[in-house]
Amino acid sequence: MGSMPATPRSLDVAPYDALLLYSFGGPNKPEDVVPFLRNVTVGKGIPDARLEEVGEHYYGFGGKSPINEQNLELKAALEAELARRGIDLPVVWGNRNWEPFTTDAIDELERIGAQRAVALVTSAYSSYSGCRQYREDLAVVLEKRGQLDDSGSTGVELDKIRSYFNHPGFVQANLDAVADGFAELVAKGGDPRSARLVFVTHSIPDTMEAASVVSQATYSAQHLDVARSVVAGLAERLGHDVAWDLAYCSRSGPPSQPWLEPDVNDHLEALAADGVTDVVMAPIGFVSDHMEVAYDLDTEAMATAGELGLTAVRAGTVSTREPFVRGLVDLLLERAAIARGEDVAEATVGDLPPFRSVCAPGCCLRRDGEPSGVPALCGSGLYS
Ligand SMILES: CC1=C(CCC(=O)O)c2cc3nc(cc4[nH]c(cc5[nH]c(cc1n2)c(C)c5CCC(=O)O)c(CCC(=O)O)c4C)C(CCC(=O)O)=C3C
Ligand SMILES: [Fe+2]
């Protein structure tokens, strides 16, 4: 992966007095599934048939998503890494769509006396779904609590760590996971030289993809950048090149609405038709093995691969891999230095710049040129 930029030297987290680990949330038991799906889809125009289908995915796993336990593991790993470096900073966990909800997390920040916290969202890429929606939910919840005015929060102040898809820690952890995936393929009797590496991420509507360019490069371009970095590192480790593609999973929305393609199942079919026999799927779009991975990849895409007679392996997500967790703490220190007005080197790998710590006007809207009218924190203005 070439030269790795040095980690920030200062261990100063001022002006922050808490880290908010901010995630999507998921159901813990069957009775949670419908209310959770209602929270996720309010005002989104997702067809009922799709919702029933997604509900079945959750019921198939006992009505419980693995995402909450995975976030607790990440929280524990972050706490351990902070302690290892001698950094004293409480970590508070909250979710947009399930318990502990955003408002619970803000209660907790108030309880511990936090004045200014920094949010780390469990989405590495920038788009409406991975960036602005998190920022909007923070603002809307503060507004409901009567803690928002034109200048932002009147309670605990909240900043955000930049989209970290091209941070060395995230890329390194993905490279390690893909290399492990290739080792598993070999153990299964596959041929790493002829295997196809299929990077996978969550599909989004084409309109959301187009709007995501304001954040410095589109959602798909961000993934291609990570993919190229991982492929370069993998070729070094394996001693030969590997052919690769980017495919998408978890499409929803009406069929009339175009979303990013190819779908991973269609893509596996096309590969098999082309004579490919071995595949490694790498879910670089997700930070842990939550339901999109457990169902859409491990259940559905693996079944497709089986029907096609492919030897297939699903590589791991970054989850609590050491380079990822270390990188997140580096990003926290970087963000703190930026908040203090210091000149910091923002580490990246690949061809794209470090993404902004304070989102630009019009960044990551749902659709191009359509301001939502919904306030959002951590940007250049509450309604920009
Ligand atoms: C880019 C992206 C990420 C990655 C970034 C990030 O991690 O944030 C992500 C993550 C996740 N998506 C998740 C679940 C769902 N996403 C849905 C719907 C949608 N996702 C979208 C995009 C994304 N989603 C979009 C454009 C929609 C259409 C509606 C809308 O415009 O918002 C729906 C509704 C039903 C359906 O349509 O599938 C569900 C249930 C879970 C929880 C999994 C668990 O429980 O383990 C997680 C981590
Ligand atoms: Fe989603």
TrEMBL record:
EC number: 4.99.1.9
Pathway assigned to this chain's UniProt record: Porphyrin-containing compound metabolism; protoheme biosynthesis
Residues binding Fe-coproporphyrin III: S65, Y134
Subcellular locations according to the entry: Cytoplasm
Top EC class of this enzyme: lyase
Coiled coil: none
Keywords assigned by UniProt, alphabetized: Cytoplasm, Heme biosynthesis, Iron, Lyase, Metal-binding, Porphyrin biosynthesis
Binding-site list for Fe(2+): H202, E292
GO cellular component: cytoplasm
InterPro entries in alphabetical order: Ferrochelatase (IPR001015), Ferrochelatase_C (IPR033644), Ferrochelatase_N (IPR033659)
GO molecular function: ferrochelatase activity; metal ion binding
Keyword Lyase appears in the UniProt entry: yes
NCBIfam families, A to Z: PRK00035.2-1
Function: Involved in coproporphyrin-dependent heme b biosynthesis. Catalyzes the insertion of ferrous iron into coproporphyrin III to form Fe-coproporphyrin III.
The protein's name: Coproporphyrin III ferrochelatase
Organism: Isoptericola dokdonensis DS-3
